[in-house]
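Quick start: what a row looks like.
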Amino acid sequence: MNHPHEHAAALERLHQHYQSMPPVAAMDVRVAAYDGAVLRLHAPLARHVNDKGCAFGGSLASMMTLASWGLVSLHVEEAGLQAEVFVADSQIRYLAPLFADLDVEAELAPDSSWPGFLATLRERGRARTGLIARARLPDGGIATEFTARYVAILKSRAPAGATG
């Protein structure tokens, strides 16, 4: 079991990274929880409401993209690696309108594994993995489901053209 403060410094760095991107800062996104397996983000509906009074689909897509990106980034950092993380592709299913704050969670897809992803990243300098994110309804049901593949590429150890 992970201690709640075990990830505090990494979560603060993640929060600061989110805030450094103007569109994300405007979304008023915050890290709600992280247990080493699932990353949860929260944002107020008032910042994401559409013309129907429910959560804007683009905001839900962005939140799930950010949660999944954040989860991969946390695992890369935890492994002591420095890599750029990108979303490679994603698919979204909108199942029900969300008339409440946006609560999104991301986790590894069932057919993926962190040890395999990280081993490939170390060995080949790049790796991909599958993630699933969901926006939850207040009753715990699913408003939106997102499946995606993310790619991590190790940052080079020396500047291009450097000799040693």
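That is the whole record. DSSP finds four helices and six strands in the chain. Residues 158-164 have pLDDT under 50 and may be disordered.
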